[in-house]
């Protein structure tokens, strides 16, 4: 039986970030992954010559958010992020930018003028309440809205809610819309980060810096850095609502999500061991303290980081407190569908960087990722991802047909240009941010067993949320004297 300092269960992005950070604090780490591939929803693979991501992604909070803090402190190799661009809606008249401030709302003629004014007033009210410290997490978006809006306006708000929480506006909190739209920002400065985890020096930095790090000292492409420099003054929430472009800190990794995954893997020191296709069937506990896991063998460690679904934890440990099990049952899951279409040529309908949201009848999130990097598609071809929130009460076959119908209704000429099509059904995050949905605590009732991942933190989405969870994990490990 091998003994390690830390065993990480799961090799999604949360598990890999946990392993990387703990290894840089001098820990000998074992990562166990039940699947064949690493990275979870942070990965890319090739289908008929097109490199598709696991779902469409926009990486948020790239200035002082959690991922850049982790990259700056723990990565030896840095991915480069291209400027994400803008969000649009597609109508019969073409593309219109989704409003990001009050000035934009005035000219957003997709909605009736009266509704635009009402939405602006409602948003200002919500931001004012939030600025005074009033928590809007328990107020649904629907309850916060006036009831005299037209159907298109409700559909628009419902679409925004769906992509921020995976649920309708009746189950999405007003606070989620404020933070998800970046009107209320979470930032993590280096000083705050140092205070949370205790400033440390790498005991053994690599003697040779990575080529990427020496050529590109920062992780933002020049075009995105220029936008950041232009608007990076300290706006308040209300000032940001009035004038600022709120999505300036979003990016897409050059070479796709695999570039971010590889940056993590290439940064691992020799003290990290990874075993794929090795499912953990039990977490071993004695005297209410973990001492190892059971998989294809018995592996011992005094510290276990579990990054699977928190709802599955009771299956791995006997005699968890019933109250704790009931709390985990309150975590809400949602499913998403992504359809990747490889197109025989670059279409004028997708001549932009960013993504579009079609909100009449049925919403999609469309993202032409080969516009960021042409190498993601064969020469002179184009790759576009269409993501949808799946209705849990319908069959996947029904939702798939509905999704294709939506694409062909929004873009009636696209069908004759399809060169490749590929579908993915996945759970985008391990917990949905809903009014009544629960999140797991990082600490568990078992000593030295911790949970990390997107079911332990409700901030932001996807990879950014996973990064938040890892910083909170490091903070708690430091408090429990398990970090250094």
From TrEMBL:
**InterPro entries attached to this UniProt entry:** FAD/NAD-bd_sf
Output the SUPFAM superfamilies linked to this UniProt entry.
FAD/NAD(P)-binding domain
Q: Where are the transmembrane segments?
A: none
Entry superkingdom? Archaea
Which PANTHER family does the entry mention?
Answer: PHYTOENE DESATURASE
Name of the protein: UDP-galactopyranose mutase
Which species is the source of this protein? Answer: Methanosarcina mazei (Methanosarcina frisia)
